Amino acid sequence: MATTAIHTEQQISFTNRIHHGDCIEIMKQMPANSVDFILTDPPYLVNYRDRTGRTIHNDVDESWLKPAMAQAYRVLKQDRVAVMFYGWTKIDRFFDAWISAGFQPVGHIVFRKSYSSKSRFLRYQHEQAFLLAKGRPPLPKQPLGDVMDMPYSGNKLHPTQKPVQALAQLIRSFTLQGETVLDPFAGSGSTCAAALLTNRKYIGAEMDDIYFQLAAERMQRIQQRVAARRLS
Ligand SMILES: C[S@@+](CC[C@H](N)C(=O)[O-])C[C@H]1O[C@@H](n2cnc3c(N)ncnc32)[C@H](O)[C@@H]1O
Question: What is the pTM (predicted TM-score) of this model?
Answer without folding.
Answer: 0.95
